[in-house]
Design goal:
There is one protein chain. By secondary structure, this protein is of the alpha+beta class. Helix content is 40%, strand content 20%. The chain has 7 helices and 4 strands. A 4-stranded antiparallel sheet has the order 2-3-1-4. The longest helix has 11 residues. Bound molecules: adenosine-5'-diphosphate and magnesium ion. Adenosine-5'-diphosphate (ADP) binds next to loops. Adenosine-5'-diphosphate binds next to loops.
Length: 137
């Protein structure tokens, strides 16, 4: 096991539902430390660029437009196996398939408005942290 950093985004539905604190508490209780955080509105350009890996997927345009509908809360989590630990706390992409007790099972309404983003690998985490927090890369 190794100490890792990962990028988390509380998506517009999570911010709108007023559950930033509840989500951050789950990270903290799982032993993840919040070492950087910022609330922001993503521009269309930022959302397109952040999700560029999905640009050929059919949901890309909807994803980009959804992520720009309201403020998001972006943070960097640090801890043992932070990347996989955050993915476990999040649950599956489609909330209907997410394990009980995960963030998406408890709070998400749909595969589009699925409350949280989390880096899916150590390599992508490094890129995503650098995208929003160059000082922490
Ligand atoms: P995850 O966020 O679990 O890593 P992906 O990286 O595959 O999932 O997809 C990025 C985001 O795009 C998802 O969180 C979800 O909001 C959206 N998405 C993924 N697959 C679909 C789909 N089949 N239909 C609509 N939106 C999707
Ligand atoms: Mg992903």
């Amino acid at each position: 096991m190794a100490t890792e950093r990962t990028l988390s985004i509380i998506k517009p539905d999570g911010v709108e539902k007023n559950i930033i604190g509840q989500i951050l508490t789950r990270f903290e209780e799982a032993g993840l430390k919040i070492i950087g955080a910022r609330m922001m509105m993503l521009s269309e350009q930022q959302a397109k660029s952040f999700y560029e890996v999905h640009k050929d997927r059919p949901f890309y345009n909807d994803l980009v437009s959804y992520m720009t509908t309201g403020p998001v809360f972006v943070s960097v989590l640090e801890g043992e196996s932070a990347v996989s630990k955050n993915r476990e706390l999040m649950g599956a992409t489609d909330p209907k398939e997410a394990n009980p007790g995960t963030i998406r099972a408890d709070f998400a309404e749909s595969i589009d408005a699925n409350t949280v983003h989390g880096s899916d690998s150590v390599e992508n985490a490094a890129k995503e942290v650098a995208f929003f927090f160059p000082d922490l890369a």
